[in-house]
Amino acid sequence: MAGEVTVDALPYIDQGYDDIGVRESALAMVEEECRRYRPTKNYLDHLPPLNANAFETKLMASEFERIQNRQPMETLSMKRYELPPPPSGKLSEVSAWQESIENSMAQLEHQWVRSMNLELMLEYGIESWKAYLEVISALQAKTIIQLQESKKKIQDINWQRKQAQTQAGDKLKSLEANWVLLVSKNYEIEQRCVELEEEILKTRIEIDKLNTQTPSNLTNGDA
Q1: Which one of 91, 153, 161, 211 is most buried, by most CB atoms within 10 A?
Q2: Rounded to 5 degrees, what angle do the CA atoms 92, 94, 96 make?
Q3: Are the CB atoms for 7 and 168 separated by under 8 Å?
Q4: Is the dihedral of CA 35, 37, 40, 42 positive or negative?
Q5: What is the mean pLDDT of each run of 10 residues along the chain (223 residues)?
Q6: Could you tell me how far CA 22 lies from the centroid of its own chain?
């Protein structure tokens, strides 16, 4: 299948990782590779330049500029809550006093709204907070259940993977043992064949020697 990836690693059956010197040997290979690796060019050249100000707002820009210039942060302005009288040059003007009175009335109204909000919070805030906590608790319980289900799925997948790899490992070990046995038998057969060939060769040589004996030698031998 196109795009299919077959993982041939079997970590549950691989052996030898904890043997003495294996870790040191691997680290030495990594260090050797790092010494030989000398990048000659920037591997990020194909990427566009980084725009660090892409998500920067005007307020953030001004604040970063202030921090860069090491300027102190502006203190909270309390001018909105002040009740200043008319300027000294306008103490005799009715309009100036009218503006001051309107400002005082606005401040008084604002404080009254704040007081009313506090009273409403004291009266209904507890129940609202309880309802909010109930919603949060329900969401938390649902999230915990989803988390447990996800953990169980991951555990099941890992267990199936381990079982499949263990079975594959047992099969590989069995096949390897059979291969070793067959190789050993083939070696024994080849060795025995060599020995038989040598015996056959010796027998042929002896037969050739007997056949090459002259009749006179046979006659003298009979006499």
Answers
A1: 161
A2: 85
A3: no
A4: negative
A5: 59 75 88 78 79 88 92 83 81 86 89 91 86 94 96 92 87 92 94 93 88 60 48
A6: 24
The token duo for 117 is 């909000």
Give the tokens for residue 221.
């031998």
On whether the pTM is more than 0.85, the answer is no
Q: Let me know: does 53 contact 61? Beta carbons within 8 Å.
A: yes
Q: Is 27 in a helix, a strand, or coil?
A: helix
Cα distance between residue 171 and residue 164, in whole Å: 11
Instruction: Return the structure tokens found at 73.
Output: 């942060």
Helical H runs in the chain? 22-36, 58-68, 94-211, 215-222
